[in-house]
Amino acid sequence: MTTFSAIPEETHEIKRFEHEEPLTTCRFSPDGRYVFAGAEDLGVHRWDVKSDAKATLEGHESWVRRMDFSVDGSQLFTAGWDGQIGFWDIDAENAQPHHMLQAHRGFARWVNASPDGKSIATCGNDLRVRTWKLKNYKMTADMGGHDRHPYAVMYHPDGEHLASEDLMGWIHIWDTRRRRIANKIHADIMTGYDNKFAADMGGARDMEFHPAGERLACAGISNVVNSFAGQQDPLAILVDWNTKQIECHLEAKDKATGVMWGVSFHPSGFVACGIAKQNGSGSIEFFKADKESIESARNEQTPVKDEEQPPSETDDKTDSKASETKPIAPTLKSYFSLAVDKCVRGMDFSPDGKQIAIACSDGTLRILEMDKKVGSDSESEEKSKG
Predict the structure, then answer these.
(1) pTM to 2 decimals?
(2) Which residue has the higher pLDDT, 320 or 152?
(3) Domain boundary assignment for the chain
(4) Fewer CB within 10 Å of terminal CB in the chain, N or C?
(5) Would you state the CATH architecture of domain 8-301+326-385?
């Protein structure tokens, strides 16, 4: 499908679907015909983008926070906090799943389809990362290594690796052939300790690979004070897949407290993140995360050495290695922020890259278009010139 060169600054709402309960997540279908959303009524709801027709898919016994699709676009996969993975025909009039898989003890946090369309990967509160064959729903790998709950797991586009992140900020890279950990990355900025509730908080609320596989994006929280009250900072990180190093941090320019629930790469090159703010509102943040912007941010925050200061008498060449510190990833601020009047709990780009679907805490599913409004001043000027 041909992609669209979006203009974030021109983003505006073109359609709104109403639901009675707060939404938990949303996804466009691969062909762009439908938008699916999870809700706090435990259902998954499907809207036809053109006709506005609504269908409700019932089968989970708890919230659905993650959805994915088969490679051919014919099936929807849902991960529920009841530990189950639901399998649904995308066009089915019958609202029942054609299969429910008990994948994990406790929450099933995530489901993701493999690039070859033959398998899915899941993770859950039983600390396991698992893969399953779609043909017969049989488990093909059961991998342990996370000490705390893994919140997200994604196939790398090469199909030979998985990435998962737990609430302590540990990103595990898995070799799917050997069924073991190949590498670890500690995104320690994406975790914290909630003193009020005496609990660790962190991990990826959303995760996505760049289509070329060169980067991994993880969205979540940092600087936790009282997570249950929303007192933490929304944050995303970009990981360089080749070096396995954190390239940069992505932060909203207004420094609002809350949770970053969504992160996605756009074909035009920018990165967008969805935020639920502590005050009950939300936003979509847009970032220029190219190499030049990252390098510029790094140069701005790297302290300049004072060459006029004389060396200390205790300086010793033998201690130079011991004094070396791990380089701090630069922080990029959003270059454009779109205000939303309610918390954004999920976001997804349309397949053509022209629209954004956002799931909101008031039960509305909103479709935004990243283009000039029809009848706008700029468009009228162009027509008058013609």
Answers:
(1) 0.89
(2) 152
(3) 8-301+326-385
(4) C
(5) 7 Propeller (2.130)
